Amino acid sequence: MARDVKLGWDVEALNKAYRQGYMAAEMGMARERCPYRGDVVIAAWEAGWEDAAAVAVENAADDLFSRIA
């Protein structure tokens, strides 16, 4: 597995951070509460958080339109 020893992250760590960020947004956790340190891992967590937040907005809009129709 590729690992950057200087930065302390690898692909598995970034995937885990992404999944945890996604779950955090689904549970309503604030973006500012990211538990990670290090720019790259924080970016992965935030990417997951943002993706889940976008899905939630999309689903809310779909639900609104279905109620109107």
Describe the structure.
- The chain is mainly alpha-helical and 69 residues long.
- The chain has two helices and two strands.
- It has a two-stranded antiparallel ribbon with strand order 1-2.
- The protein is elongated, with a radius of gyration of 15 Å.
State the gist of this model.
The chain has helices spanning 11-26, 39-68, and strands spanning 3-4, 9-10.
Note the topology:
Blueprint: E1 3-4, E2 9-10, H1 11-26, H2 39-68
Distance between the termini: 51 Å
- Alpha-beta classification: mainly alpha
| Overall average pLDDT | 85
Order of helices and strands: EEHH
Features:
mainly alpha, Arc Repressor Mutant, subunit A, two-stranded antiparallel sheet, 67% helix, elongated, RMF_sf
